Amino acid sequence: xxxxxxFTADTLIEHPADAVIRxxxxxxxHRGPDDEGYHTGGAVLGARRLSxxxxxxxxxxIANEDGTVWVVQNGEIYxxxxxxxxxxxxxxxxxxxxxxxxxxxxxxxxxxDLVSRLEGMFAFAVWDARxxxxxxxxxxxxxxxxxxxxxxxxxxxxxxxxxxxxxxxxRPALSAAAxxxxxxxxxxPAPLVIFDGVAKLPPGHVLVFEDGDARVSRYWDLPxxxxxxxxxxxxxDRLVQxxxxxxARRLLSDVPLGAFxxxxxxxxxxAALMTRHSPSPVKTFSIAFEERSFDESRYARExxxxxxxxxxxxxxxxxxxxxLAERLGEILDEPLADASILPTYxxxxxxxxxxxxxLSGDGGDELFAGYPTYQAHQMARRLAWTPxxxxxGARALADRLPVSYSDFxxxxxxxxxxxxxxxxxxxxxxLWLGTFGPDELSAVLAPDVWRAVEATDLLAEVRGHLRAAxxxxxxxxxxxxxxxxxxxxxxxxxxxxxxxxxxxxxxxxFLDTAVVEFASRLPAxxxxxxxxxxxxxxxxxxxLLPDRILRRRKKGFGVPVGAxxxxxxxxxxxxxxxxxxxxxxxxxxxxxxxxxxxxxxxGTHDHRKKLWNLxxxxxWHRTYMEGGMPQPAHAGQQR
Length: 639
Prior knowledge:
The chain is an alpha+beta fold. It contains 28 helices and 17 strands. Strands 2-3-1-9-8-10 form a six-stranded antiparallel beta sheet. Strands 4-5-6-7-11-12 form a six-stranded antiparallel beta sheet, with helices on one face. The longest helix has 28 residues, at 473-500.
């Protein structure tokens, strides 16, 4: 696991290449505290390394035998032992035991198409000195990040924006289009980046930069459902086999491993499968909350006792969370409105005291239809006939319900459900998962910024994915959208930034290519049956996990934001979202934000989601735009 960065020599004029690449990699020290390495030539490569495999010998960058091909990698190639053996049979010489060295020899034999042979989580750069070609690639599901820019006709890349900002040719300016997407989705969807002139390399894509031209191409996509798939008993058996093999692959390490354990189905399944392959008790880790409606620790303890794991638990208090919330900008590259990044970071920090690698259950909900949203869509489809006047009346009645700030409270669910009724599938899904609808942006944005984005198609990325998801059925379409948007640009970004900020590597068996492709081909009725979510996964895990765990309701990794804004976080939110500060900044409408905050504190409305979205934006802005980062142009300014 590493942080990587680099650039072509033509992006520099007056600055020495070695000083620039060292500065870029210094910004990634948290991703790789154990080692650093650099290559300068036609392309400049740098890596900060978190040593996992071949701790002593896996120094990066790594070259082929004659030094004409160089590579830096962030991530792990799980099938590298087999690939290494194949390369050795073809006559390639190896100097290390690391997975990264396999990449240079695969590139020699297969060129940019080497990615199709890899199983893992990765973002890497290959420099071919003979062809003067730079190749960037990212794993299929987007576990590992990679950003790039094209200053002066060259190319600059890095794992995180923090490193790009250290390159002297990069002049950041806030993207109004990306800002509007953030407010709507709670994250910035790929390939957009919060800064103009930068892009995320999408998951499952390769970029080839040669002769001044950058070509981006897709090498993989989620397969469509197969109506001729196996029966439920056969599919359940096959699923357990695939998950078991995926878990075993992710136990390859020269440093200690453990597992995140929430007590939910996905993390519990991973922990259970780990125990099959571990000669000693698996170390498991969880976070507890004092607020009972948000706390899952009792389920985690139950699973740990059943599996016989060496379980560790830490209780998080509001004051600890508040101190971390003020530091969000240091962890994130872009605004990200998922408050669960706070416990994810604290869980990662807590886990890192004992192990260097942790396995998690990320991806299970998006692959097997685990979210309550899918149940809500099932119900909404049955109510599609509801007349508009009836809907308006129901929404008016829902607005009069008493406000509760518990986790996923009944009043919150009713209001959220009614807000999406009457809309097409994709828009309904966006409204349910996101924060500010298109009709709300004009009120919350400052007038100048709104004029810069009012003609923007906020659903452009959604529509692009919808075209790729044709003929998948309504559930298949939603699962495809969630994999391509919410999972890749929200959940996995959260986990990567939170864990790597603590120098912890997180591996996800559910995102193994064989598991993902198997799940994607399953017909809808094997995922959502009536209102039963994860139908096949629960059947597959019967006997592996206690029935009580398999039957329990879905519970997210939530934070009591709503209650804390009215209590211990009241002054913090009042300061960060203060009228004078927002007026000086010029991005948001101070009066509209003040109204949201006042109504929430008074207890007349539940604006926790909107307020956290705006708070995260402001914390990010304070760090990147008002702190030591280069000062960008105004959001509405054209470049």
